[in-house]
Amino acid sequence: SKLNRNEIQFIMAGNTSESFDDLNELGDKYSIKPIYTGLLGKDELRYFYRSVDMYVHTSNYEGFGLVVGDALSNGIPVISTNVAGSRDLIKHSKNGFIADSIDEFIHFINLLVEDSDLRSKMATNALSIANAELNVTVMEDKVISSILRTIDK
Question: Pick from 131, 108, 133, 112: which is nearest to 121 by CA?
Answer without folding.
Answer: 112
